[in-house]
Amino acid sequence: MILYEMRPVRSTPAHQTQDFAELVCSNSLKSTSEYTAPWLLKEEMRRAGSLLLEIAEECSVPAGHALAVDRVAFSEKVTRVLEQEPLIAIRREEVARIDSSQLVIVATGPLTSDALAAEIAQLTGSSRLFFYDSISPIVEADSIDRSKVYMAARYDKGSADYINCPMTKEEYDCFLDALVTAESVEEKDWEKRNYFEGCLPIEEIARRGRDTLRFGPMKPVGLIDPRTGKRPYAVVQLRQENLRADSYNLVGFQNHLKFGDQTRVLRLIPGLEQARFLRHGQIHRNTYINGPELLQPTLQMKQHPNVLFGGQICGVEGYVESIATGLLAGIQAARMAVGEAPVAPPRPSAFGSLLHYVTQADPKNFQPANITFDLLPALEQKIRDRKERHQKQCEIALQEFDAWLASVGVTKPIEAPAVAH
Quick check: helix, strand or coil at residue 108? Predict the structure, then answer.
């Protein structure tokens, strides 16, 4: 297998290292709470032998009921594993051409290079698609005023690993007024903002109404302040960024503000008055293809079946979803490499439901999606209780997925993956 990576020969505005699997946005791989949709997808990945999920768990940091990683340790370990694998030849060069006669996995992004994006556009026969994704700010831990914050997890689920910055109504109103009047990074003439709804900049959320942030990233529900016994008017949560616990990221606080205004506005948050920013929030472009028009349920191109797409570029949003589709593309390519036909995962599974959306959604209104129970098929048996219904969906999904794994011969991680770009 040949694995191409253009960094460090050519980097992107979103990346800072030359390591593989660099997490440029959040450091969270979502909920680990049993019978949630992210848990289901990760459980299926675990049963399929996902090496990346295994490394993520080894590099995890405290994050309540979420799986968050030390992003530096995670990417460094992934890089070491790849470099030590004798079946993988790594080539540090930019790919500008895709040979559709060869078995190829395209798993590029975010910020696919212009040359490769143009080649993908030509191969797919469609114009390049993109949406804007976001990066949350990171602050130094010792610059947080601990006298004004408290540790808690929402509804006390998991351990109290999040720093919570509580706001009164007056503090919230002051922060909101400063936020919506702050200066954004200048939009280039050729840019048309197409933000992913699940990762909107906070200033965009704020412009939709004065309480939208309080129902979004600043939601105070389930975060009782132990010092007062009351729920704050609004809360900003900070999640541990690395194993040393010397930095924290502002959860859901991605933005497109100029750095000077961003510092001024975010220092209005109680506890962050003297915050030192290791990284400011940013917006970057993600490229993706129109999966419903171009892909089979096996992630093969309809017109070029030797070419498979996996990861964010195939039309999914989120690290877990990207890892899952990359894993699936690898399984299918491994079967094809030994002359076996690729087989789509079962529709009731999280894998199958995600792929069903990516390949069967309305192509005219297609936008990348996270895994949710809305993507899974409805139960034949009507169950009114939501938790009970979700548990039943998970049980069916795992039963079907286990049977599929056995049918495609995946009882442990694939040992000989196919050629990939």
Answer: coil
Which CATH architecture fits 2-123+291-407?
3-Layer(bba) Sandwich (3.50)
| Alpha carbons 237 and 64: distance in angstroms, whole number | 12
Strand partners, 234: 167
**Residue partners of 177: CB distance under 8 A and separation at least 6:** none
What are the domain boundaries of the chain?
A: 2-123+291-407, 137-280
* Cα–Cα separations (whole angstroms), residue 292 to 33, 262, 289, 355, 362: 31, 38, 9, 10, 7
The burial class, CB within 10 Å (0-12 / 13-18 / 19+), for 179 is buried
CATH of domain 137-280: 2.40.30
Q: How far apart are CA 353 and CA 363, in angstroms?
A: 17
* H or E element, residue 350: helix 350-360
The CB density around residue 194, as the number of other CB atoms within 10 Å, is: 12
Q: CA 312, CA 331: separation in Å to the nearest integer?
A: 17
Structure tokens at 372: 């949710």
- Per residue in 72-128, pLDDT (tens digit) is 999 999 999 999 999 999 999 999 999 999 999 999 877 788 889 889 988 988 765
Q: Burial, 186: exposed, middle or buried (Cβ in 10 Å; 0-12, 13-18, 19+)?
A: exposed
Q: What is the rounded CA–CA span in Å between residue 175 and residue 285?
A: 27
3-state secondary structure of 13: coil
* Percent of the chain as helix, strand, coil, to the nearest 5: 35, 15, 45
**Among residues 176, 143, 142, 179, which one has the least CA distance to residue 264?**
179
**pLDDT tens readout for residues 170-189:** 999 999 999 999 998 865 43
Taking the model in full, what pTM does it have?
A: 0.74
Burial per residue of 379-412, b for 16 or more beta-carbon CB atoms within 10 angstroms, e otherwise: eeeeeeeeeebbeebbebbbebbeebbeebebee
Q: pLDDT (tens digit, 9 = 90+) per residue, 283-322?
A: 777 788 999 999 999 999 999 999 999 999 998 988 999 9
Strand segments (E) across 168-306: 234-240, 247-250, 277-279, 282-288
By residue count, the chain amounts to 421
